[in-house]
Amino acid sequence: MGAVYxxxxxxxxxxxxxxxxADPAAPGLTxxxxxxxxxxxxxxARLVPTFDAAISGDLPRQRATLFAVLExxxxxxxxxxxxxxxxxxxxxxxxxxxxxxxxxxxxxQRVLDAGLNGWIAGTExxxxxxxxxxxxxxxxxxxxxxxxxxxxxxxxxxxAGTIGLLIAQLWGIPPADWPAVSxxxxxxxxxxxxxxxxxxxxxxxxxxxxLAADRIATFR
Length: 220
What we know:
This protein has helices at residues 31-47, 60-70, 92-95, 98-101, 105-121, 130-147, 160-171, 178-182, 209-212; strands at 2-8, 53-56, 79-81, 153-158, 190-196, 199-207. It has two domains: 2-87 and 128-212, Rossmann fold, CATH 3.40.50; 89-127, no CATH class. It is built from nine helices and six strands. By secondary structure, the chain is an alpha/beta fold. A six-stranded mixed β-sheet has the order 3-2-4-1-5-6. The model has no long low-confidence stretch (mean pLDDT 90). Helix 6 (130-147) crosses helix 7. Pfam families: His_Phos_1. Keywords: Hydrolase.
């Protein structure tokens, strides 16, 4: 039996979410985000002797998190990029309001949830449909699982929406309830999925006690 460790990216700057102007030279994470990812790497190094594969999505915050996590390991597998682990893009109607609302977390979340509900129902457009997002998340998980043979450990760094959607699929949670699952994920938290003959089995979700203990846990 193998295992896939899914790590949500560390805290990212606002422009990573399409809010404000992005500096092409800016790092994918904030200073706190790097600290979160390194602390998660330290915990994983106590739990896992080595990773046999290391995968990230193609977003800067996901790549930066993977490299920061792996700093805790003497032996590091080659970095593999699988863009199917990327986060969903904001629905089109939110792109014009995101910058104004991002500073007010509660207001931003209300508008985001409304936009996501429309996207899931097919009444809100985006760069991809929700059905396409669902399919690519499932495909990415299957590819990671294929690398997690008997006794093998795979590291994946992704985002809350993508990891949350995978967990929702594995637990049979209706698509309409997926956003509520995703917004509980803490930056640099760990979700563990076992890979066996019967398929994928979730054994832990959103582990972040190591971050909370040092008071560096954040949601955004």
